[in-house]
Amino acid sequence: MCGIVGYLGKKNNALDVLIDGLKSLEYRGYDSAGVAYVYNNEVKIQKEVGKIIELEKMVNYNDFSNIGIGHTRWATHGGVTKYNSHPHKSGKITLVHNGIVENYEQLKIDLEEQGYVFVSETDTEVIAALIDKLYKEFNNLLKVINMCKDILIGSYALAIISDDEKDTIYATRKDSPLIIAYDENDYYIASDVPAILKYTNKYSLIENNEIIKISFDKHEIYDINLNKITKEILIFE
Ligand code: GLU
């Protein structure tokens, strides 16, 4: 087990939220950690093997960012190396992943045949390449993320930023936990409630195959058929 955190909002520096959140998820176990955030209209990635403190030493908190995703990894595919740490980027797609993709080997072969080059040994980088490839074809990230449920076998919680939509975070899950949390127009996503309690106690549980789309002042949640849905808001006491 391991963790995901995401933040999009105006009240905080994403780097503070991500590092705080990842520290709150340390109890879940991990071997490496990383963040991706938007700064100067660029998606920046920082990742390190070992404790979150190692990542914290490398992160430039002066990069004040309003959008970011973070990850603690428990290696399942590929050794504990910086290259295998998350976030992974392929083409325009940057993402973090908790879980295991059981059919990643065949998907990887297919994607390599189509010209994708992989820098890690992970199943996760295959998801990034798959989404990038489908996005080139369909030009609609929401639709593409929804299509992945019929292609990926296994478990996943994903948080995704696209180079084409640097003001938006998408997230989805299947058999790995995911919540969305709210503080007015600031939005958080996480594997578990402790990650966001410093900032808010209002949250909703995301069910399998639902998709979160958060952007400034707006959040949308879609069901498996891409219908917009409203979630019950829970209060953590
Ligand atoms: N299977 C992925 C990997 O080995 C994700 C592991 C995790 O859940 O942290 O990188």
Report on this model:
- There is one protein chain.
- With about 240 residues, the chain is α+β, with helices and mostly antiparallel strands.
- Helices cover about 20% and strands about 35% of the residues.
- It is built from five helices and 15 strands.
- The strands form two sheets. The chain has an eight-stranded antiparallel β-sheet, covered by helices on one side. A seven-stranded antiparallel β-sheet has the order 5-6-7-8-12-13-14.
- A hairpin with a 2-residue loop joins strand 9 (about 180-185) and strand 10 (about 185-190).
- Helix 4 (about 125-140) packs across helix 5.
- Bound molecules: glutamic acid.
- The site of glutamic acid has 15 residues, from strand 6.
- Poorly predicted ranges: none
Unique ligands: glutamic acid
Structural class: alpha+beta
Largest β sheet strand count, sense and barrel closure: 8 strands, antiparallel
State which percent range the strand residues make up. 35-45%
Mean pLDDT: 97
Looking at the chains present, what oligomeric state does this protein adopt? single chain
The residue fraction in helices comes out at 10-25%
Please list the strands of the largest sheet in the order they lie side by side: 3-2-4-1-10-9-11-15
**DSSP helical segment count:** 5
Backbone CA Rg = 16 Å
What is the end-to-end distance? 25 Å
Total strand count, please? 15
What's the SSE pattern? EHEEHEEEHHHEEEEEEEEE
Q: Globular, elongated, flat, extended or rod-shaped: what is the shape?
A: globular
Characterize this entry briefly.
The chain has helices spanning 14-24, 52-58, 104-113, 124-138, 141-148; strands at 3-8, 32-39, 42-49, 67-73, 88-90, 93-101, 154-162, 165-174, 179-183, 186-190, 202-205, 211-215, 218-222, 228-229, 234-235.
